[in-house]
Amino acid sequence: MIGKLLRRVRRSRSGTAATEMALALPFLLTIGMWGTELANQMVTRMRLSQLAMQIADNASRIGDQSMLSNRKIYESDVNDLLAGGKVQAGTLDLYTNGRVILSSLEVLPGTTSTQYIHWQRCRGLKKVTSAYGAEGAGKDGSLPGMGPSGDEAKASAGDAVMFVELTYDYQPLISNLFTGGSQSSTIKVQAAFNVRDDRDLTQIYQRSSASPDPVASCTTYSS
Predict the structure, then answer these.
(1) Which of the ends of the chain has fewer CB neighbours closer than 10 A, N or C?
(2) pTM, entire model
(3) What end-to-end distance do the CA atoms of the chain give, in Å?
């Protein structure tokens, strides 16, 4: 009886599909999770790239309209601009997980083409600095422009380029292991726009000296 039962078990094929599925399931789940995480990271990168362009574009437009003088920009304008970036980022929680650095690239006064960073404003908790230097960088003529080597954005005399550097720690759906680890999950994007109107390039103004607006300094880290 026992021998007959063993022969029947040996000839049985009723559990073959279930066994194959059990062996393949971990591999299929891993591939599925990897594809989902990679797709989400790509969508996040696209959203951040568009966000950097929106911030740079908005920075190129801010300021008071005047028929009698060049457009002035105020610290409150810059603060509103950065606050708008947080709203546009939506669920990404931009300033908790990343940092935005806004630089005004201009031609050094008294020269015809020397590029320098006139002013710089930042917001976000991530500990990063500009890849091109702090406010004032380039006064010695060492700054060819801002952007990829050989394809730098450059300002024209009497004009300015609003340059945005956005750095963000990708927040995974499942795990950073599916995107190559924590180091490779840091997303960096850049965008640049020329100012749209004649702008007063001398400084960023305060609307009230008695009650000045806070300055989004690049030496502080806040959300």
Answers:
(1) N
(2) 0.85
(3) 76
